[in-house]
């Protein structure tokens, strides 16, 4: 059920869930102060309770209400990138954020999204927790249609059009006196250099036996089809190819185009729609062209495709 901003506000105030647009992907929102509704988010997504949620605020100042102390460069980072696709993990006062939100961790993740409709709603109802609006393990939703595919036509969704970024926010975590990337995302490491004086590194899953980003543990972004990632020898076995507009592929294969090799933003924007299209077309095996640059946003694209290909 497509709803307007007033209806979204009304439902959230009545402790119901609403799917909402952000510039990255659609989110599945509940108010931070409603643990009952937040529990429902985990249930309807089929999400593990050990995977914490991001708190979405309408102003950087709002984080101060929850934080014990703000890590260095917090103000400079939010000044440069909020509203926008950056999530910052901050140590918090435990009694102020229900443990279900942070999966029992002593930290919470914060982000100020830039979509005007969603900012308007947050200003009206207070901070929202929002995981991506997809069934756990599936590609995120970058359009209302994707939300409807996963949660049904009756589920309330605020239509904000297609998402501009197409991939989730970049998550930064301050550890051992440095910011590190806990999840690759819409902002690439290089953009932080002028602010931090260094490029934050990306730590994959575990460091010193501590989980940096719990989300890394779970299967993600995957279509039904088996994905073959870039090995030329496997191309004959595939019924579909996921590729780029300037490349040519065997004529007998059905090709779904991610976009141009000269435009990683376009590729990111189309990525989840193409993975979902494979499901829609009942593809069995899709061969993914992994022959693309390895810098910047391409790193995020490569990581998402690799994760989508994991079985
Ligand atoms: O772009 C986005 O970030 C989207 C939109 C809707 O804002 N949201 C999103 O949420 O991607 P979700 O739940 O799909 O991913 C949140 C990620 C997970 O990998 C989770 O483990 C991590 O954030 N996370 C949340 N709180 C954390 C914490 N306290 N410490 C470490 N990782 C955390
Ligand atoms: Mg997600």
TrEMBL record:
GO cellular component: cytoplasm
Signal peptide positions on this chain: none
Subcellular location field: Cytoplasm
Highest taxon in the source lineage: Bacteria
Molecular function via GO: ATP binding; double-stranded RNA binding; L-threonylcarbamoyladenylate synthase; tRNA binding
Residues that hold ATP according to the record: 47, 51, 107, 132, 140, 183, 221
Binding site for L-threonine: 24, 56, 111, 169
UniProt keyword annotations, A-Z: ATP-binding, Cytoplasm, Nucleotide-binding, Nucleotidyltransferase, Transferase, tRNA processing
Top enzyme category: transferase
One GO process term, biological-process aspect: tRNA processing
Domain annotation YrdC-like: ranges: 2-187
InterPro entries: DHBP_synth_RibB-like_a/b_dom (IPR017945), Sua5-like_dom (IPR006070), Sua5/YwlC_C (IPR038385), Sua5_C (IPR005145), T(6)A37_SUA5 (IPR010923), TC-AMP_synthase_SUA5 (IPR050156)
Catalytic reaction(s) noted: L-threonine + hydrogencarbonate + ATP = L-threonylcarbamoyladenylate + diphosphate + H2O
Gene3D superfamilies found in the cross-reference section: DHBP synthase (3.90.870.10), Threonylcarbamoyl-AMP synthase, C-terminal domain (3.40.50.11030)
Enzyme Commission code(s) on record: 2.7.7.87
Protein function: Required for the formation of a threonylcarbamoyl group on adenosine at position 37 (t(6)A37) in tRNAs that read codons beginning with adenine.
Database matches in PANTHER family: SUA5, THREONYLCARBAMOYL-AMP SYNTHASE
Family indicated by similarity: Belongs to the SUA5 family.
Protein name: Threonylcarbamoyl-AMP synthase
Species of the source: Protochlamydia amoebophila (strain UWE25)
């Amino acid at each position: 059920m497509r709803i307007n901003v007033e209806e979204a506000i009304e439902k959230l105030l009545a402790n119901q869930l609403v799917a909402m647009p952000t510039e990255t992907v659609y989110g599945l929102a509940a108010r931070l102060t409603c643990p009952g509704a937040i529990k429902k988010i985990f249930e309807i997504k089929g999400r593990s309770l050990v995977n914490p949620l991001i708190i979405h605020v309408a102003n950087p100042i709002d984080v101060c209400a929850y934080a014990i102390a703000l890590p260095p460069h917090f103000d400079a980072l939010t000044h440069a990138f909020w509203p926008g696709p950056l999530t910052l993990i901050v140590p918090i006062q435990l009694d102020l954020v229900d443990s279900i939100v942070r999966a029992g961790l002593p930290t919470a993740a914060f982000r100020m999204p830039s979509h005007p409709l969603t900012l308007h709603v947050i200003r009206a109802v207070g901070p929202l927790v929002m995981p991506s609006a997809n069934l756990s393990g599936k590609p995120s939703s970058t359009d209302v249609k994707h939300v409807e595919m996963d949660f049904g036509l009756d589920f309330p969704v605020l239509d904000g059009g297609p998402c501009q970024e197409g991939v989730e926010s970049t998550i930064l975590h301050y550890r051992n006196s440095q910011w590190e990337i806990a999840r690759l995302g819409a902002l690439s490491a290089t953009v932080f250099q002028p602010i931090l004086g260094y490029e934050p590194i990306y730590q994959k899953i575990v460091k010193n036996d501590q989980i940096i980003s719990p989300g890394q543990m779970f299967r993600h972004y995957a279509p039904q089809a088996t994905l073959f990632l870039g090995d030329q020898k496997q191309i004959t076995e595939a019924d579909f190819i996921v590729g780029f507009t300037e490349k040519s592929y065997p004529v007998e294969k059905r090709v779904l185009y991610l976009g141009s090799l000269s435009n990683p933003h376009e590729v990111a924007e189309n990525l989840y729609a193409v993975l979902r299209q494979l499901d829609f077309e009942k593809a069995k095996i899709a061969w993914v062209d992994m022959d693309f640059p390895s810098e910047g946003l391409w790193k995020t694209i490569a990581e998402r495709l690799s994760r989508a290909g994991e079985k």
